[in-house]
Amino acid sequence: MNSPEELARTLEGAGYLADDGVATAAFLALRMQRPLFCEGEPGTGKTSLAVALSRSLELPLIRLQCHEGIDAAQALYEWDFPRQLLHLRALEAGSESLDIEAAEQSLYTERFLLARPLLRALTTAPCVLLVDEIDRADDEFEAFLLQLLDENAVTIPELGEVRAEQPPLVILTSNRTREVHDALKRRCLYHWLEHPDLAREVAILRRRIPGIGERLATQVSVAARRLRELELLKPPGVAESLDWAQALLALNRDELDVDTASRTLGAVLKYTEDMERVRAKLDALLA
Ligand SMILES: Nc1ncnc2c1ncn2[C@@H]1O[C@H](COP(=O)(O)OP(=O)(O)O)[C@@H](O)[C@H]1O
Ligand SMILES: [Mg+2]
Q1: 204 pocket-lining for ligand 1 (C-beta < 6 Å)
Q2: Where is the AAA+ ATPase domain (predicted)?
């Protein structure tokens, strides 16, 4: 991969239409072997960028979905306690006098290790590691991640160090429900993803939904852009434009008129307050 333009073409082959900013950020992350921190509103193409990168670079994708309370056991590894117990019972049943030390050693081997995404990323590299929605995790987990990104290695007390032969391409995403710490950002290249411009959104719809015409794709994209300007509780992302367009096609519509829009608003808005506000001004929105 020799230029952002070349990467953009490769991503397009995987169905992802990257603008110059995204293509350059991803290209530099690859070239400089640095994690890429992607921040932006929901539905701006952060998660799908990582998926498209793995497809187009033909690297396995390893995904860690962050959530409140996520900890090392869920992210890195756990011991398979029930199987360890079974193994121990079998050992006990099989011999009259159990060598405690040997038994213990046999319990803490790879056989009983449950590798979670971060450990798998270290042992699978080269790969794409997607750490999705890091803003949902807490500070402690961020600090833990920081160390792992720094060293591309972890130490499992019972087994020793596991080091990646080749650092994974790490994509971190955040919907910015809170600020992520500077220390983490400092390790990464940063890119803020905007909603696509009109031409790109039309292109995304046409690329993703076979059979949609230019006219309907444009109408949906224009309406979605206007909705984003209304300061709704949940402004629509590209995912919602895609859903909306698909809903219209499912109803055999080739045009977005007021009546059809009103009936299909549930594909694009997810709060009753938003729907009420928008219904009252659908005429202007679709003009
Ligand atoms: N640039 C793009 N090219 C192709 N599809 C896109 C693009 N941006 C967003 N999408 C599509 O929009 C939807 C939402 O994108 P997603 O990556 O889940 O957003 P985010 O992770 O930022 O919330 C997905 O179906 C994705 O395929
Ligand atoms: Mg996402």
Answers
A1: yes
A2: 31-214
Instruction: Assess whether 232 and 206 both reside in one domain.
Output: yes
Tell me the H-state helices in the chain. 4-13, 20-32, 46-57, 72-75, 81-94, 100-107, 117-124, 139-151, 182-186, 198-208, 214-228, 238-250, 258-264, 272-280, 282-286
Which of 168, 193, 218 marks a domain boundary? 193
Q: Is the pLDDT score of 100 beyond 90?
A: no
Range of the domain at 105: 78-112
Same domain for 53 and 18, yes or no, is: yes
Same domain assignment for residues 209 and 271: yes
Residues 145 and 270 in one domain: no
Using one digit for the tens of pLDDT, what is the confidence trace for 146-173? 988 899 999 999 899 999 999 999 999 9
Which ligand lies nearest the alpha carbon of 16?
Answer: 1
Structure tokens at 174: 């955040």
| Closest approach atom of ligand 1 to CA 18 | 1
Residue 69 is encoded by which pair of tokens?
A: 């309370």
Look at residues 112, 133, 158 and tell me which one is the last residue of a structural domain.
112
Q: Is the CB of 241 under 6 A from ligand 1?
A: no
The per-residue pLDDT for range 52-96, each reduced to its tens digit, is 999 999 999 999 999 999 998 899 999 999 999 999 999 888 877
**Which amino acid residue places its CA nearest to atom 5 of ligand 1?**
16
- Same domain? For 40 and 138 the reply is yes
Q: Is 46 in the pocket of ligand 1 (CB under 6 A)?
A: yes
Kindly state if the Cβ of 65 falls inside 6 Å of ligand 1. Answer: no
Task: State whether the beta carbon of 48 lies less than 6 angstroms from ligand 1.
Answer: yes
Mean pLDDT of the chain: 94
Is 256's pLDDT higher than 90?
A: yes
Nearest ligand, measured from the Cα of 237: 1
- How many domains does the chain fold into? 3
